[in-house]
Amino acid sequence: MGEFTDKLKGAGDKVVGSAKETIGKATNDTELEAKGKAQQLKGHAEDLKGKVKGTINDV
What we know:
Layout: H1 3-26, H2 30-58
Helix pairs in contact: 1-2
């Protein structure tokens, strides 16, 4: 994937993960809350991956 695609996918995962975490907390569903946190971490990693690709391309 390219830089933009990685950043876009990362942003999506962060938003969806945040929603899952919020719903999990509101419904006292610890499994959904944990999945939301994990998806947010995945989103941060994808965003970082995109930034690294961008930096490499700039060099």
